[in-house]
Amino acid sequence: MDIDTDNIMNNEGTNILIRDFVGMDFTSWVYDLFRPNEPYTNRGIHPSGVGIKRYIKTSDLTKEEQSYLKLQGFLSLFNFISQKKLQLIECKE
Questions:
Q1: How far apart are alpha carbons 83 and 90 in whole angstroms?
Q2: Which residues, 6+ apart, have CB-to-CB distance to 83 below 8 Å?
Q3: How far apart are the C-alpha atoms of 44 and 49, rounded to whole Å?
Q4: What pLDDT, on a 0 to 100 scale, did the predictor assign at position 12?
Q5: CB-CB contact of 49 with 26 (8 Å)
Q6: Which of 2, 7, 64, 84 could be cross-linked to 57 through a Cys-Cys bond (beta carbons 3.0 to 4.6 Å apart)?
Q7: pLDDT digit string, tens, across residues 10-27
Q8: Whole-angstrom Cα distance, residue 19 to residue 75?
Q9: Cβ atoms 69, 61 nearer than 8 A
Q10: Domain-by-domain residue ranges, the chain?
């Protein structure tokens, strides 16, 4: 994922208007969740030299933040479990 983020930033160049607001949503979400008081400007300068480096790479996250991101990714899979199937399993027992 970090390679994709680097490629996106390199392809955007200096055109701020074509940039996504935060890049990969989940990494930015976790980064901001764990650092609510950090100024946005602390992300640094975009590789082009124009604007703020908005995108957060996995390597920008601490080990704790990476673990939280993986856990949330796993938990999101529960959205695909059918409630009806769970009810049938429960009734058979």
A1: 11
A2: none
A3: 10
A4: 81
A5: no
A6: 2
A7: 778 888 887 776 667 889
A8: 30
A9: yes
A10: 2-92
